[in-house]
């Protein structure tokens, strides 16, 4: 299995509080992604990174920010959590190469509940 | 725009073949993928197909791609209870660095 860990694995928080989720990889892959998984919606991309300090928005980025100060860590922050952000969050990594298929390796997920 | 659609649920008997279908809208897709998610886990790549191929076979798995209709299917032969999972199709296009996933099909295999 690719070396990807997510922390915490479970979190319950209250509306309006800040929350930071961490993704850590040991594979030295360039690309890192944050997705959320909700019933009926599959996986939706929140943000991704294509290098240290290089990030871009996904389709559901409102209310989320990210940071990547080291190759191995990608942080997802909910500045002020809302109940609509209750979800399972997955981190993924890949070593995307031009002209090749993009295999993404996924972490175990973080289940976040916002009360 | 990009959109990947799948039916939500499929139930089969053990030993039968399963066929999971997917449609996509972006004609510039370069690769299409099937990922598998077992309960409580992240996704794992099952197989992929390059957009200029029509079919790919890998042991019990057969992927069919109809580019004209933008239709992708995954056939699992001799389906086993261990195949019970959620299956996601996904596409990548040259101009994007991320994948677009469908909503997932839950496959239930009955003994």
Describe this structure in words.
The complex is a heterodimer of chains A (115) and B (111). Chain A is 0% helix and 57% strand. Chain A is built from no helices and eleven strands. Chain A has strands at residues 4-7, 10-13, 19-25, 31-38, 42-51, 54-57, 64-70, 73-78, 87-94, 105-106, 110-114. In chain A, strand 5 (42-51) and strand 6 (54-57) form a beta hairpin. Chain A is globular and about 45 Å long. Chain B has 111 residues and is mainly β. Chain B is built from no helices and eleven strands. In chain B, strands 2, 4, 5, 9, 10 and 11 form a six-stranded mixed beta sheet that branches. In chain B, strand 4 and strand 5 form a beta hairpin. The N and C termini of chain B lie far apart (41 Å). The model of chain B has no long low-confidence stretch (mean pLDDT 91). Chain A binds chain B through residues 4, 31, 33, 35, 40-45, 48, 50, 56, 58, 90, 92, 96, 101-104, 106-109, and chain B through 4, 6, 8, 31, 33, 40-45, 48, 50, 88, 92, 97-104.
Secondary-structure map:
The complex is a heterodimer of chains A (about 120) and B (about 110).
Chain A: E1 4-7, E2 10-13, E3 19-25, E4 31-38, E5 42-51, E6 54-57, E7 64-70, E8 73-78, E9 87-94, E10 105-106, E11 110-114
Parallel strand pairs in A: 2-11
Antiparallel strand pairs in A: 1-3, 3-8, 4-5, 4-9, 5-6, 7-8, 9-10, 9-11
Chain B: E1 4-6, E2 9-13, E3 18-24, E4 29-37, E5 43-50, E6 55-58, E7 61-66, E8 71-76, E9 85-93, E10 100-101, E11 105-110
Parallel strand pairs in B: 2-11
Antiparallel strand pairs in B: 1-3, 3-8, 4-5, 4-9, 6-7, 7-8, 9-10, 9-11
The first-to-last residue Cα distance of chain A is 34 Å
Q: Biggest interface, which chains? A: A-B, 25 and 23 residues
**Helix fraction of chain B by DSSP (H/I, runs of at least 4):** under 10%
Sheet having the most strands of chain A: 7 strands, mixed
Class per helix and strand makeup of chain B:
mainly beta
User: Mean of the pLDDT scores of chain B?
Assistant: 91
| Number of distinct beta strands of chain A | 11
State the low-pLDDT regions of chain B, or none.
none
Structural class of chain A: mainly beta
């Amino acid at each position: 299995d690719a070396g990807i860990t997510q922390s915490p694995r479970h979190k319950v928080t209250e509306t309006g509080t800040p929350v930071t989720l961490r993704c850590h990889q040991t594979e030295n892959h360039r690309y890192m992604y944050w997705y959320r998984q909700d019933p009926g919606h599959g996986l939706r991309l929140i943000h991704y990174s294509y290098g240290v300090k290089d990030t871009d928005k996904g389709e559901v980025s409102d209310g989320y920010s990210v940071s990547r100060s080291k190759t191995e860590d990608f942080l997802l922050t909910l500045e002020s959590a809302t109940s609509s952000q209750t979800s399972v969050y997955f981190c993924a990594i890949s070593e995307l190469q031009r002209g090749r298929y993009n295999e993404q390796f996924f972490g175990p997920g973080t289940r976040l509940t916002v009360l | 725009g990009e959109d990947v659609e799948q039916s939500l649920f499929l139930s089969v008997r053990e030993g039968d073949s399963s066929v999971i279908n997917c449609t996509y809208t972006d004609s510039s897709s370069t690769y299409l993928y099937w990922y598998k998610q077992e309960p409580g886990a992240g996704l794992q790549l099952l197989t992929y197909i390059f957009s200029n191929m029509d079919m790919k076979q890998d042991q019990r798995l057969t992927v069919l791609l109809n580019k004209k209709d933008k239709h992708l299917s995954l056939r699992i032969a001799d389906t086993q209870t261990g195949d019970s999972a959620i299956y996601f199709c996904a596409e990548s296009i040259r101009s994007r660095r991320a994948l677009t996933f469908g909503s997932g099909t839950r496959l239930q295999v009955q003994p």
